[in-house]
Amino acid sequence: MGEKPLKILACGDVEGSINAVFNRVRTVQKKSGQFDLLLCVGNFFGSSPEAQAEWQEYKSGAKKAPIHTYILGAASQETTRFFPSADGCELADNITYLGRRGVFSGASGLQIAYVSGREGRQDPTPAHCFSPKDLSQLVEPLISNNQFRGVDILLTSQWPRGVWQYANSPEVNTKFCGTTSISHLAFKLKPRYHFAAVEGVHYERRPYRNHVVLQENTQHVSRFIALATVNNPEKRKYLYAFNIIPMKSMEASELVKQPQDVTENPYRKMVGENTLSDPTEPASQFFFDLGKKQRGGGRGQGGRGRKRPSDGDGQNQGQPWDPDRQTQPSGPCWFCLASPQVEKHLVISIGTHCYLALAKGSLTPRHVLVLPIGHYQSVVELSSEVVKELDRYKMAVRTFYKSKGQRCVLFERNYHSQHLQIQVVPVPEDKCTTEDIKEAFMLQAQEQNMELMEIPEHTDLKQIAPPGTPYFYVELDSGEKLFYRIQKNFPLQFGREVLASEAVLNIPERADWRECKQTPEEEESLSKQLRNDFQPYDFALED
């Protein structure tokens, strides 16, 4: 979108007054033109019968939101029933639940970090609460990148404790307001705008610095805005409109401009103090371990988080999700290497944790699959050892393709599939550029009303797609990554259709693998040829 600003609305606790907030949005848009997004913090749903009836109209499709609306998860136990899963999903037309925690990044490059619910002080963490692990899994992949400057927007339901330091005072009892863990989160993520709610008041803090004057390079300022409850009798402000150009599209000199009323950072002193010994602040602990080697064999933060079951499905309640423990297939699996169903004549290379195979009904003669030997459903469920070998295979195939003058395109569809398959397809360099391939994916997604978002380099897939989330993912030879969180009715052949299209390989007749079937003899001959060609790049032969 270049330098064109995005027009965004932020809203406080809706608490079931859905008609009221959307009527207000229509009024604003009539006066100021169409906005791009509505971001809702705090409790979106209400528990009264009237509020439930109002929601039903949107859920059934009888009414539609007038703007793309993104909401946080439950901030109270009573409203958890409105969220079918801990993972983000579309709840109604134009109304999307972001998820428990993560980073949302649209085609414009705008980065929105979010954490749903309140701070949990018990284990296991209730469904309407976040845990220290949730926060560390959000923060660590971002700040571990030395190019990280901050996020554009941070959405939390709770306030950061002490945000009023060095600034104007809010109309709340500051003794009981906010939580230290959100203060640490805001300090680390350096949001340009931070929105919160649940206190029932409007409070717009003066902007604060993210650098120490004369000691650090000048950085952008942060603005904290708390919003009141929709339809509150005191007429306090609950809707906030603003324009923003994504940080990645701004000149550094423009980004770091300091307004006249800027203050010191309200959290710096708090973060500098060691609060580990304070048993009343358990969630603040996670920040003091960032950057240190984690316990448990040095696994990444995504390694041993809990997989939260969907609300209403109590079968796995309280069971820790462990990537080292493979799930068992519910029936015969065509891709588990030990399974009698596997067509072993298609196998090209076998490593310790993964294997490479010719794709059945391949798009081109060198179209391969990288698969885990054990039964895993998606990349985000893999242990660090499996991920490491998966990456080695990806790198080996990339190098192999490059030697043949071909670009490497990888994609994964975690939807209507029970065993992880990374599809790896070569595209001749003289056919099209990487930008052409990216554009083909973007345009075809747009035509099917899907928004493929670009994942920033420093964002881990596990961070935006917790285990159990249906998604489609593409990796280009430039290292650029595209992601779509599947909501419903996703075309199963989408990846193949894009690559087979006129804009890329120009073989539309091969878009469906079932139309490309070969005899076992033809497959065996092709596999043998590929096995021989790939041999110089096959690290499994050396290990």
Automatic annotation (TrEMBL):
Q: Which GO terms describe its cellular component?
A: post-mRNA release spliceosomal complex
Pfam families for this protein: CwfJ_C_1 (PF04677), CwfJ_C_2 (PF04676)
Q: Where is the Cwf19-like protein C-terminal domain?
A: 447-539
**Superkingdom of this protein's organism:** Eukaryota
Gene Ontology terms for molecular function? RNA lariat debranching enzyme activator activity
- The Cwf19-like C-terminal domain sits at 324-432
Sorted alphabetically, the Gene Ontology BP terms of this entry are: mRNA splicing, via spliceosome
Q: What segment(s) does the record annotate as region Disordered? A: 256-327
Under the heading InterPro entries, the entry gives: Cwf19-like, Cwf19-like_C_dom-1, Cwf19-like_C_dom-2, HIT-like_sf
Q: Which PANTHER family match?
A: CWF19, CELL CYCLE CONTROL PROTEIN, CWF19-LIKE PROTEIN 1
Please report which protein family the annotation says this sequence is part of: Belongs to the CWF19 family.
* Protein name, entry field: CWF19-like protein 1
Taxonomy, top ranks, is:
Eukaryota, Metazoa, Chordata, Craniata, Vertebrata
Which gene holds the coding sequence for this protein? CWF19L1
